[in-house]
Amino acid sequence: DPSNTPLWGKWLSPGCPPPRVLGGLTRAIPRFRGSDPLSTFRWQGFKLEEYLIGQPIGKGCSAAVYEAAILLSSNYQSSEDSKPLEGKTPDTQWDHGSDIQAAEGKPIQTNQQRAAFPLAIKMMWNISAGSSSEAILSTMRQELVPASGSALSGEYRTVACHRRPVFGKKKLKPHPNIIQVIRAFTSSVPLLPGAYVDYPDVLPLSLNPSGIGHSRTLFLVMKNYPCTLRQYLNERSSDAHLSTLMILQLLEGVDHLVRHGIAHRDLKTDNILVELDSAGCPWLVITDFGCCLADENIGLRLPFTSWYVDRGGNGCLMAPEVVTAIPGPGVLIDYSKADAWAVGAIAYEILGLCNPFYGQGRSSLESRSYQEDQLPALPDTVPFDVKQVVKMLLQRDPNKRLSARVAANVLHLSLWGENILVPKSLKLDKMIGWLLHQSAATLLMDGLVDRSRVETKMKTCFLANLEYEDLWEAAFLLLSWRNHSV
């Protein structure tokens, strides 16, 4: 499992990044803190009453997210900014004025607050699922795809390592670039900070006489990340090396999904979380699986028999073969390269440009109708290999488009395999020797260096997913591009 393999390698980026600015005030993004903040609370966290709920972190079209921590009376005390759920009434639980201020840009957390709130709780808005736990879990089953083996133990009292797919949905194994839901349970809807301002209509009648929500809903517990990729890119500019590593991480995450027969279908910078590794490199994690395709029976080929079939979210970043599909008998939409196309579009934002598929006006493109020669040119500072990868990811024809695996291999070879590409001709013994060297270095450095380096995690993913055809395709592509550019 790549997510559990020790880290190694040399880092090239500055060791201390500048502070992050949020809402006009400055705070530093905390460094990587490990994968499971609940690891020391194995038998806890299956009830909402066990959590201390803090301030809002974010809000989407179907849920609100809050900072949280396991409630320990010896370590936490009630305050105006964070109060336990117990013993509260709708009239006295929260100061609505402070909620509005937080929603309008007041810094949600300082470093000390983040240390006190290592978790994030996502409260789904339940409008149509009913109030039974089974109905809620069935209706919102996509959200459970990245759930850990023990996430649902409290609901079903199952053995963690033997959990079966929930309601026909695939179970996704851990990956360093995929969010992990570490607890999932149903509970009564509480009144949380900002509720009356941010989402009054979806509250139940017990909390809002005009609300249309049900009294019970699904809660998902995850690690608390400092910011989204959108926030990170709005506040910082990255050099070519860091930008390449960010694109590579998204490709590794998408490849992991494809290998498990899952399509995210809603990739965008708001659905990618970021924290910094020990060297200051952004660590990207794909989150929000509410629109994903993860059916045990159909895999990545969705029967598109009518316009009522859900094709996924975020129409602006919907791959051409998805957005142009016309329903009919026997029609299938193949999602095997759809998320890779979205990574190509997001790469423009990572590389410092506007996403060409957002906005309005003549400069804006539509995935339904654009032509490849209309894509904006990338800056001269972007490495040639990266430009070619982005271009190939945005091919309209999925048969000509790079898969996430091959695209990731190209970037791996470009970053770390230059010595086997210099002769401009591939030799099997050189390739094998390089791979053996990389593998030996990984094993040798096990436990000897910091285990929270993005660069080393990516090398580990590369070595864990090696396939002969994909690797040689990537190598030949690189040499072909370079030979044609001379």
UniProtKB/TrEMBL annotation:
- Taxonomic source organism: Gopherus agassizii (Agassiz's desert tortoise)
Start and end residues of each stretch annotated as Disordered: 78-104
All residue ranges annotated as the Protein kinase domain in the record? 51-415
Q: What is this protein's record name?
A: Serine/threonine-protein kinase PINK1, mitochondrial
Under PROSITE patterns, the record lists:
PROTEIN_KINASE_DOM, PROTEIN_KINASE_ST
Q: Which UniProt keywords apply?
A: ATP-binding, Autophagy, Cytoplasm, Kinase, Magnesium, Membrane, Metal-binding, Mitochondrion, Mitochondrion inner membrane, Mitochondrion outer membrane, Nucleotide-binding, Phosphoprotein, Serine/threonine-protein kinase, Transferase, Transit peptide, Transmembrane, Transmembrane helix
State its Enzyme Commission number(s): 2.7.11.1
Q: What is its main location?
A: cytoplasm
Question: How does this chain sit within the bilayer?
Answer: Single-pass membrane protein
Q: From which domain of life does this come?
A: Eukaryota
Which reaction is this enzyme known to catalyze? L-seryl-[protein] + ATP = O-phospho-L-seryl-[protein] + ADP + H(+); L-threonyl-[protein] + ATP = O-phospho-L-threonyl-[protein] + ADP + H(+)
For molecular function, the Gene Ontology terms on record are: ATP binding; metal ion binding; protein serine/threonine kinase activity
- For bias kind Basic and acidic residues, which ranges apply? 80-98
